[in-house]
Amino acid sequence: MINSSSQAYKKARRQYLKSTKSRDSNADWSAFRISEKHFKSKFPPPDFTFVLDLATLDDARAAEVAAGVWAGSPDVVPTRQLASSKAYVLPSIPGLVLLPAFLTPERQRELVKWSLVEHCRPPNETNLDTHYLLPDQGLWNAFLQERSALVHPRPIDVNAEYIKQEPGPRQLVDNIPASRINFESIHSISKPLLLPSVSAQPSTSANLLPRLRWANIGWFYHWGTKHYDFSKGKIPVHETVRQVCKEIIKLIDWNEVFESDTSEWGPSGPDWVDWHDSYEPDAGIVNFYQTKDTLMAHVDRSEVCATSPLVSISLGNSAVFLIGGPTRDTKPLPILLRSGDVVIMSGPACRRSYHGIPRILENTLPSYMKEMTDDGWAPFRAYMESTRININVRQVFPKGFTPALA
Ligand SMILES: O=C(O)CCC(=O)C(=O)O
Ligand SMILES: [Fe+2]
């Protein structure tokens, strides 16, 4: 697998030796950080012995596992398959539900197309909107039409109030966890526009596409404060994604998932009893990762409802997903997520756990995404070669909580 005489290997080795010489004593050495570093490392390559990989249990996925280069083990922690569906739960993380290969290759390709063609366009916001005046038809559709057409930087409005966001990966802002009690005060926090880059130059859609990092679903999210900005109104969650999420939540027998759970359920009690009816996604994000990208340890705590299921769909290249506990000091469990896998984070013990993506696994696009199944697939195939897409869908308000949002 590793060619130790290649230039890439030698470069990675030099970098590794350099990085181990200059360890900063003030650095974050939490259990989560140590695990992130392990999986980010190019040299030595990470050990996958203790990575949970449920695909290795499935004979139908043997060729996919072999082609995927990296493989973990199915039994690094105790798991329990539900009697009622092909879902797995982990007694060590109550509320985490894994549905390996839930989506057929055909549904995966449909969701890739949906993410780029239908979702990545106004009125949905993307990370690039802060800095560029993106075409009305969306960046992907403009790219298909005319790859070299220029996209211009967003001018700064001298009369507007802005806040500055540092460049690079998502910032470590430890925002106040939203709840029914503090909802009004969080809602009233000012949410100024993010300052457009002063150095952005006109760029082509082809050059901007690898810099696409996320597109908003439903309620708008304010990245400067890490709270929802309800003043901007709500875009309904698109039927394609809403239906997939509702189907998944309905398919799970939640009684089977939570039977042994004794953790705190908060003011509303164990609300899973009526998720089949009350679950209604209203927010989320589509994440676009290039193979060099990572998502640092974080908790999704901007939603008022801290228990309702978060549905997370993986498409394209595989990734290592780390899931820990209430602080960064809990040693996280690494899980190998492949295209078509679905993860559900639900309940008080899991929904607000630290998690992140330290590594996208290079060259792991499954063969069915490389086949030319229809005439229009070629540009999607080329983009997906180096991409992982994650559709991450949430419910902001618990059942019966209907604040005035004026
Ligand atoms: O990409 C993933 O699987 C996780 C994404 C995530 O945690 C998030 O968007 O909050
Ligand atoms: Fe998250």
Automatic annotation (TrEMBL):
<dbReference type="GO" id="GO:0005737">
    <property type="term" value="C:cytoplasm"/>
</dbReference>
<feature type="binding site">
    <location>
        <position position="300"/>
    </location>
    <ligand>
        <name>Fe cation</name>
    </ligand>
</feature>
<feature type="binding site">
    <location>
        <position position="298"/>
    </location>
    <ligand>
        <name>Fe cation</name>
    </ligand>
</feature>
<protein>
    <recommendedName>
        <fullName>Fe2OG dioxygenase domain-containing protein</fullName>
    </recommendedName>
</protein>
<feature type="binding site">
    <location>
        <position position="355"/>
    </location>
    <ligand>
        <name>Fe cation</name>
    </ligand>
</feature>
<dbReference type="GO" id="GO:0046872">
    <property type="term" value="F:metal ion binding"/>
</dbReference>
<dbReference type="Pfam" id="PF13532">
    <property type="entry name" value="2OG-FeII_Oxy_2"/>
</dbReference>
<keyword id="KW-0408">Iron</keyword>
<dbReference type="GO" id="GO:0051213">
    <property type="term" value="F:dioxygenase activity"/>
</dbReference>
<dbReference type="GO" id="GO:0005634">
    <property type="term" value="C:nucleus"/>
</dbReference>
<dbReference type="InterPro" id="IPR005123">
    <property type="entry name" value="Oxoglu/Fe-dep_dioxygenase_dom"/>
</dbReference>
<keyword id="KW-0560">Oxidoreductase</keyword>
<dbReference type="InterPro" id="IPR027450">
    <property type="entry name" value="AlkB-like"/>
</dbReference>
<dbReference type="InterPro" id="IPR004574">
    <property type="entry name" value="Alkb"/>
</dbReference>
<keyword id="KW-0479">Metal-binding</keyword>
<keyword id="KW-0223">Dioxygenase</keyword>
<feature type="domain" description="Fe2OG dioxygenase">
    <location>
        <begin position="280"/>
        <end position="397"/>
    </location>
</feature>
<dbReference type="InterPro" id="IPR037151">
    <property type="entry name" value="AlkB-like_sf"/>
</dbReference>
